Amino acid sequence: MPKGLYRYIWQVSGRDQIFLSLMAVGVFLLDLVPLELQRRIVNGALEKHALMQLVLLAGLYVVSVLAQGGLKLWMNVYRGAVSEAANRRLRLQLSPDSDERATEPGERREGVDISIIVSEVEAVGGFIGASVSDAVLNGGLLLAVFGYMLVLQPWMAAVAMLLFLPQFLFIPFLQKAINRRTERRIKVLRGLSVEIVDEAADRRGPREDGRYRRQVDTIYRLNMQIFRRKFGMNFLMNLLHQLGVVGILFVGGWFVIQGKTEVGTVVAFISGLNRVNDPWGDLVNYFRDMTNAQVKYRMIATALGHRAADVKAKP
To answer: How many other C-beta atoms can be found within 10 angstroms of the C-beta atom of residue 315?
Structure first.
């Protein structure tokens, strides 16, 4: 297996990633259409009491939503198929018939195989399906909406951008702490799986109850530490989003009072901020899944690399 996760992704699904990326571009471009239609409905059709214009714009809104939803549905199903194909490939590499599967000297590896097949593969395979298209979709949507907001009203766009800056500081810091604990948890779980398999095969005799309890307690502590950091990150992100809404209402309301902008523009900005919040949250989840998958892929590749070395070393 390649050492890098993205090298492996390109090796097993390069063509699929290109198709998924093109579909992601179509999804985020279609997602921008309702944003402009909302502004036109409020500022144009409603203020002028133009019924036919309202009907036309509402019809276009429905069509754009259906087109975007249908394309996104197709992309998600396709992405799921790519992920499951990657899961299948990784699990087959640990099958008894695989050339890369062998017993390491002095240690039974069935317990590690169980841990990899049951839990670790899912994180890696699940990320492979979204590894490129998610970044294209949410990154493109984020840039497009911010660009639209800058053109529409630069000062309100600046207020929204400023509230995202602190997240570039605390998100990588917290995620790095989560990854360290994830790797430690995997190692403990693998050790626990090895002991259970050895006990079932009568290789080492019954497990020590005290050692087993310590391992379970360690997993519990690591999971709780991960939860506190993960949900703490979500709390800070939601808080900054709500402050952004208040900031836009305040600045936008001031501009409306001064006659420098329209109510429809403020409405479009609130909608735009909500549209920015969703892809931003998805990008944070993408970063979280990517780093988690990299940790697990590295450990899986190491385990398979040991097996391949053992196969070559056999006479």
So the answer is: 2
Instruction: Say if CB 248 and CB 15 are below 8 A apart.
Output: no
**What does the block give as tokens for 191?**
């050790």
Nearest residue to 136 via CA among 283, 278, 12, 242: 283
204-252 pLDDT per residue, tens: 555 566 777 888 899 899 999 999 998 998 898 888 877 777 777 777 7
Give the angle subtended at the CA of 304 by the CAs of 303 and 306, to the nearest 5°: 70
Structure tokens at 56: 């036309």
- State the Rg of the chain over Cα: 25
Residue located via tokens 């990299």: 294
- Tally of CB atoms within 10 A around 237: 18
Cα gap 297→248, rounded to integer Å? 42
Cα separation, 251 vs 52, in Å, equals 33
CB 170 within 8 A of CB 236: yes
- Spell 191-225 as b/e; 16+ CB within 10 A means b: bbbbbebbeeeeeeeeeeeeeeeebeebeeebeeb
Whether the Cβ atoms of residue 13 and residue 22 lie closer than 8 Å to each other = no
Question: Which structure tokens are listed for 176?
Answer: 């790095």
DSSP string, 127-153: HHHHTTHHHHHHHHHHHHHHHHHHHH-
